[in-house]
Amino acid sequence: MDGSTALYVGTHETYHQYYRSLHDEIFMQVKESDSFQQLIELITRSTYYLIILEKATLQGNILELLRVIKANMLLEWIPIIVHAPGLPAEEKNDLLLAGVEIIVESAIRATDETYIRIKNLLARSKQFESMSFRDPLTKAYNRAYMLERLAAECRLAENNSGVLTVAFIDADRFKQVNDTYGHAVGDLVLIGLYNRLKLNLDKHHEIARFGGEEFIVMFPGENKSQAQNHLQRVLQSLHDVPVAESEAGNHFITFSGGVAEWKPGMQISEVIKLADEAVYDAKNRGRNQVII
Ligand code: GH3
Ligand code: MG
Ligand code: MG
Ligand code: MG
Predict the structure, then answer these.
(1) ipTM strictly over 0.90?
(2) CA of 170 to the centre of ligand 4 (A)
(3) What crossing angle do the helices spanning 36-45 and 62-70 adopt, rounded to 10°?
């Protein structure tokens, strides 16, 4: 995850400069074309609401790239714009059939119809992402998103001999918050807990609300003890600073965390189960701690 909203893949000087100049309008990240595999990984690991591809840069790979994107539940909804000046009608049809939304044939300005259509697409895809993949209360990713994302990250780890760690987090004695201060305060505490996780973790540590007061955090490329360190930092912050404030005063919360490492051949459900079992240990040992 990064701050970019849209991705532009291309090396064409004019478009390159053009998209850089539009950056403030639609938060474009401009990329030189990476290798095909790098590109897929970048798209999978980031949150783009729009992808703009330069046909000339991707050459014959473009249909293959579109096929991969459209076959991936996490990516298939992202609107794709292709820059292809002077493309023969037949090839245009191929791109449209492969799911491309707009084929741009000349440079666009901020007042052009195409530009306005691109902004509309962007707004619609943000809404779609939020409705499909986010929890309405906290705005954290939802369970469906995380299960897909973890499965994808498992495949990457499998192919690249990579490391992947998963943490399960369960708020401590959360029912007491509801019972003492009411459900609305409970909601604020959940939102506060998610925001604190986000604030203290890195942007590539994706966080999902898995159930009521339970979250899952994915740590790609990191081992168990690294993940444990990150989460202990969050616990320290939760100890120091309240997560929410209400008429009743400041509210603090702690969590019990369980961390498990993916190993080659493992299903993601097994890793989650191990992390969940470690949470159980953390609860038994007095809560407010992370067990690996
Ligand atoms: P433990 O330390 O053992 O985890 O205790 P706990 O009280 O956190 O666990 P328990 O499973 O007993 O209670 C979880 C509570 O979370 C019960 C449920 O009402 C509450 N809850 C689940 N989802 C929400 C929500 O969206 N908002 C609020 N306010 N409460 C919720
Ligand atoms: Mg629970
Ligand atoms: Mg419980
Ligand atoms: Mg709990």
Answers:
(1) yes
(2) 5
(3) 30
